[in-house]
Amino acid sequence: MFEWVAVILAAGKGIRMKSRMPKVLHPICGREMICYPVERAAEVTSKTILVVGSHGEEIRSLLGDSVDFAVQKQPLGTAHALRCAQPMADGKGENILVLNGDVPLISATTLKEMMMRHLARRAVVTILTAMVDNPEGLGRVVRDERGKVMAVVEEAEADEELIKAREVNAGVYCFRGQWLWPRLKTVPRRGNGEHYLTDMVFLAREEGEEIEAVSSTQAGETIGINTRQQLARAEEILRDRIRQRAMSQGVTLLDPRSVYIDEGVSIGRDTVVYPNTYLLGRTAIGEECRIGPNSIIENSSVGKGCHIQASVLEGAAVAEGVTIGPFSHIRFQSHIGRGVHIGNFAEVKNSRLGAGTKVGHFSYVGDAELGSEVNIGAGTVTCNFDGVGKHRTVIDDGAFIGSDTMLIAPVHVGRGAITGAGSVVNHDVPPETLAVGVPARLRKKGKVKVPPAPSL
Ligand code: UD1
Ligand code: CA
After folding, report:
1. Which fold does the domain 251-446 belong to in CATH?
2. Which of 74, 140, 146, 281 could form an S-S bond across to 165 if both were Cys, CB 3.0 to 4.6 Å?
3. CATH (residue range 2-215)
4. pLDDT digit string (tens) for 88-132?
5. pTM, whole model, 2 decimals?
């Protein structure tokens, strides 16, 4: 038997978002909103039940079996949503931690404090409250003259005096299971057809039971997302936290507010991130890199000591000491070897570039396998698509591809071979052979000498 069970409520319609997508799937700093409370709950309890609506398939497929799912067929309010979890939770935990699924920035520290206080005070219900400047739309906390919580009153039911109150219900609760379950079904239906979970506070007061309230001290953690404006605000708060974390781990952000880092991105020490740069998705940047300005790096890894300037990387794996840009685009399934130089206006897709290879200017390298120390002249194109299928280009170590070479794939250029400027290579070139012309003819087998790579 688990001592605590977490129940996360995420079956509401989210009407105020005006979206086709379930509210809790809207991303915040690159991750779906629901991932945050699910992770926090896992930090403090060993069992989590997520209440979803009847159209919760997308949420189910996102979270898989990391949580148990309960279904609320109709959104009849937060108390009703919790009731839907009862068959799965009752008897599994002495205490129930309830989280609104749309309060994503809540910290595990605050949850732990609530849970400790709840047990220490032997409360039947513990609520989390926050003092806010703009309480619009939130449940107001009513206290008696001794400061004990008496009730949470929803805005629609609050009188003029209470509307002005700035202490609000954050939407996180601890309940003693034995007390909660039999009473939950007695919560009345309100005029709007909903059963409010907040009415449990009033009920506890009526019964003379202990109600505990914990006030949040972490700025921004209690923000609830009902609207796009609140979504933007949560994004801003979390982005700032991520930037602060990166800086305290030894990363320089030249102009922090112009750098956008998703949750789940890691950046090594002494890396400098220049303005207007986006580090997104699952991205890992090594130490001592210079990233940006004006770069977008998504779902990519970048090794130590790289310099990426005004370029876009998507699904790329970049080894150490690589320079890219300005104005290049490295796309999915690209493996860029150690010390590679990719200059301006190059696109690389689904290709492997060996160590020390250079693609200086205006080139397309797609579906290609380049060995080490290959030199790709300006304007080279791997013509990988013949209108029907994609074909591979293989260029072995030390080959020298002259400017404006068209490599008609499938084609293989051997080790140390040379292609002349402007050649159209539609047949394999053996090692150490010169190929020139349109279409390219082979010359000088075994006598060619690859010129040294140009200095950068
Ligand atoms: C709720 C609280 C309010 C508090 C605020 C904090 C109630 C009645 N009010 O208001 O006191 O200040 O949160 O953010 O609880 N949900 C369901 N099924 C439903 C209805 C809602 O699962 O039938 C889920 C929603 O998906 C959401 C959460 O419960 O994740 C809260 O519901 P929401 O409608 O957003 O409540 P608020 O109006 O924000
Ligand atoms: Ca809400």
Report:
1. UDP N-Acetylglucosamine Acyltransferase; domain 1 (2.160.10)
2. 140
3. 3.90.550.10
4. 997 877 999 999 999 999 999 999 999 999 999 999 999 999 999
5. 0.94
